[in-house]
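Bug report (template v2)

What were you trying to do?
Predict the complex of my protein with 2-acetamido-2-deoxy-beta-D-glucopyranose.

What happened?
Run completed; filing so the output is reviewed.

Input:
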Amino acid sequence: MRPGHPFLLALLLFLSQAAGDLGDLGFLAPTPGSSSFLGFDSSSNFGPGSGSRLGSSEAPLSQSFSNFTGSVDDRGTCQCSVSLPDTTFPADRVERLEFTAHVLSEKFEKELSKVKEYVQLISVYEKKLLNLTIRVEIMEKDTISYTELDFELIKIEVKEMEKLVIQLKESFVGSSEIVNQLEVEIRNMTLLVEKLESLDKNNVLAIRREIEALKKKLKECEASKGEGSPAAPPPPSPGSCGHGGVVNISKPSVVQLNWRGFSYKYGAWGRDYSPQHPGKGLYWVAPLNTDGRILEYYRLYNTLDDLLLYTNARENRIAYGQGSGTAVYNNNMYINWYNTRNIAKVNLTTNTVAVTKTLPNAAYNNRFSYANVAWQDIDFAVDENGLWVIYSTEASTGNMMISKLNDTTLEVLNTWYTKQYKPSASNTFMVCGVLYATRILNTRTEEIFYYYDTNTGKEGKLNIVMHKMQERVQSINYHPFDQKLFVYNDGYLLNYDLIFLQEPQ
Ligand SMILES: *[C@@H]1O[C@H](CO)[C@@H](O)[C@H](O)[C@H]1NC(C)=O
Ligand SMILES: *[C@@H]1O[C@H](CO)[C@@H](O)[C@H](O)[C@H]1NC(C)=O
Ligand SMILES: *[C@@H]1O[C@H](CO)[C@@H](O)[C@H](O)[C@H]1NC(C)=O
Ligand SMILES: *[C@@H]1O[C@H](CO)[C@@H](O)[C@H](O)[C@H]1NC(C)=O
Ligand SMILES: *[C@@H]1O[C@H](CO)[C@@H](O)[C@H](O)[C@H]1NC(C)=O
Ligand SMILES: *[C@@H]1O[C@H](CO)[C@@H](O)[C@H](O)[C@H]1NC(C)=O
């Protein structure tokens, strides 16, 4: 990739220069094609046919204007100069000329500002692409290796971006040089991804998020040209329950491998949710020790960028966590206390236990954990309404129970009894007071197959297919503001977007 953006710099320089030169009727354009892009067409403004604007009553003037010389230098810049053969001083003509020059210059400025806008937009994309490339290159040099990366997904994203650039290019009638650059870089990205694929390196999928953002920007740029596709119905506003529940789910986007590495297959991750500061929550990653049981270390990141780059992490140690049923709400982490039916609240600022409480009669230590996931008899969940815990008791015969907790005191506020046997579900999450349970279809797909609505007491079957990267979904956490699922998939951190029924039921 190029180290900087000399082309854009040169173009901007050229544009300001051109604006200044116009007064002297020295006229510069990058290529003949580009002149129409700038709002000028040398043939119509300076050619014989358009002499009328400059001197309709005086044919000689228009003829003298048609006598200009032009040359194209080796960088494709077209230089034109016009010679005025008149030796006597035609004051009135000069006056008219001045007026015309003024009109032209205004028109030029107008077009120029449009161009600058696009140039700036594109320059931003270019920087992002460059950054992306550098990061890919860094990852390329990374030595951790892993064999099951879904490069297909990246390739599809890059392809889509390429398509958008081509559309963008078409809308830049006459001057697509800048867009061409972008196109080349995106092609290069495709090549890089293919190269990486063959190298089979780890963690490259973190860039998917960047590509996503880039794609969005391109779409915006495209839309700003008035060619945007008709808008899809807006998703429900963040944190709102004005919808009819989950009806579908996006493909996963792989955020990254957990910070402890490939062997840490068990764990959880998510984003703190607090109704007071819904969009401000920090990200947490809590891989269990390799025994799949003890939660000892967890990390906090202020931003997703920090998480992606594994930078500015706060790492804390607790020695008493069990299983990956952890959830974070209002800057507190809720955990199952090791080897007990107790639950605890850990203040994330101080990493100290604020409250512990016994969850009455809760089964624990693999009595009724999830299918394929051990030590998760007690699974916390957070949704728009607050903190919940999903568990079973001997009395419930292993069927799932949902309890609403007071997040301050950990007291059980209310409990709902489902008819769904907990060990036959692979995991659960809550959205707007509705419990959703997943089960394994095969090594690559999971199904959201069951719901229980605590608002109505209704329960039933669903069949929403959920793709996954790895075999086991170790934990699922929902974030009400992002309306995303945070899934810990055998060491990989995945995000899914939930799709809701538009109409409330
Ligand atoms: C694309 O990659 C090729 C070879 O890797 C390189 O020569 C070229 O400069 C790159 N183009 C851009 C725009 O980065
Ligand atoms: C154009 O200018 C050149 C020299 O300045 C002159 O020789 C030539 O006759 C001119 N042509 C016309 C069409 O005026
Ligand atoms: C890429 O961008 C991020 C923030 O957008 C910045 O922190 C990082 O240093 C950049 N990386 C490179 C290699 O330029
Ligand atoms: C669910 O979303 C996927 C794309 O993620 C789409 O292919 C599928 O058709 C959708 N299913 C339904 C029932 O809308
Ligand atoms: C966590 O502890 C800090 C310091 O004692 C306190 O200021 C903060 O309010 C506590 N946070 C929560 C969410 O309880
Ligand atoms: C939770 O407990 C605290 C302290 O007893 C109390 O102030 C608060 O109202 C309770 N919240 C709910 C929702 O019951």
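What did the reviewer find?
The longest strand covers residues 314-329. Residues 1-66, 84-88, 143-150, 226-232 have pLDDT under 50 and may be disordered.
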